[in-house]
Amino acid sequence: MIRYECFEWMAPLITDQIIVTSLSGQRVEWAQLSQHEGNLLLGSMGNALAVGTGLALALPHRKVIVFESDGSLLLSLFNLPTSGKSRPAKPCRFRIR
Amino acid sequence: VEPELASKLVNGLRSAGINFVTYLPETRLSQILPLMREDKFFQLAPVASEAEGVSIAAGASLGGKQVACYMEGTGVFVSTYNLLTVAERFGVPMLLLVSYVGSAADKRNSFLYVRRGTRMIPVLEALGIEYQILSDGENLETRIKDAVRMMHALKLPVVLLFTGEFTS
Predict the structure, then answer these.
(1) Mean pLDDT of B27-46
(2) Is A44 in contact with B86 (Cβ distance < 8 A)?
(3) Dihedral sign, CA of B118, B124, B125, B127?
(4) CB contact, 8 Å: A53 with chain B?
(5) Closest CA of chain B from A16, distance in Å
(6) pLDDT at res. A93
(7) Predicted pLDDT at A23
(8) Can you state the angle between helices A25-33 and A3-10, rounded to 10 degrees?
(9) CA atoms within 13 A on the CB side of A53
(10) I need a surface site. Which of A41, B20, B56, B126 has the fewest CB within 10 A?
(11) Is B60's CB within 8 Å of A86's CB?
(12) Distance between CA atoms of B111 and B84, rounded to whole angstroms?
């Protein structure tokens, strides 16, 4: 499944979740497929996971979904141990080709 | 920082409504950390980089928290990208509690810090970030409240630079 198809599948499933996107094409694709009020189209490399972690820590009753890209994640690898240690929620990771 | 001044600083933050603090510990102000850990009013988030400290705080602020980021002066240089592309872009109010290493009044100043310290103000001014320099505990609570009011008025980060008595 390519990313756009995955987003097409996901978009109708989003209800009250908060979506944080990174900078790359996924931000543009998601914005096209979803006008959900919980979208935070960040547009900054290396920041989506950290901002999503902050949102999840502040709003533990809400589910936060972060769309990262490989380059964005590599830019801020230190986000991974911080996110793991702060445990805002049980992380669930998918890899999309 | 002396315990009494550390306590005054933490009380000032609490009084100003700051309830979420990201931190990357350093030497001069680290005595505030155990005080905040003991106080359930504060939600603390230890970070691996000042850059993510700013971004996590931004997320928490967008989630309704009143946020601060505690870091050493060099952390400001590390987090400039995050300050610009997240905090400024989305208009996120946040208080940066910065140990002003290498400033003239830094009681632990040395050749190691001084060149970084002397570049702090030009960098903040280039970024368009408001700052206050605090070198003693006089009217500390009021000055923290003033900074918090300013960050909310601007919807931008505001920096408190701690030197002098805070670095002993």
Answers:
(1) 96
(2) yes
(3) positive
(4) yes
(5) 14
(6) 61
(7) 85
(8) 30
(9) 28
(10) B126
(11) no
(12) 30
Structure tokens at A90: 């049980």
Rounded to 5 degrees, what are φ and ψ at A10?
-75, -40
Q: What is the mean pLDDT of chain B?
A: 97
Phi, psi (rounded to 5 degrees) for B137: -90, 10
In this structure, the number of other CB atoms found within 10 A of the CB of residue B102 comes to: 23
Give the percent of chain B with pLDDT over 90.
98
Q: Which of A80, A29, A28 is nearest to A53 (CA)?
A: A80
Q: Do residue B89 and residue A76 have CB atoms under 8 angstroms apart?
A: no
Q: Name the DSSP letter for residue A95.
A: -
**pLDDT tens per residue, range A19-38:** 999 987 888 999 999 999 99
For the stretch B10-23, pLDDT in tens is 999 999 999 999 99
What contacts A29, CB < 8 A, 6 or more positions away? A3, A4, A7
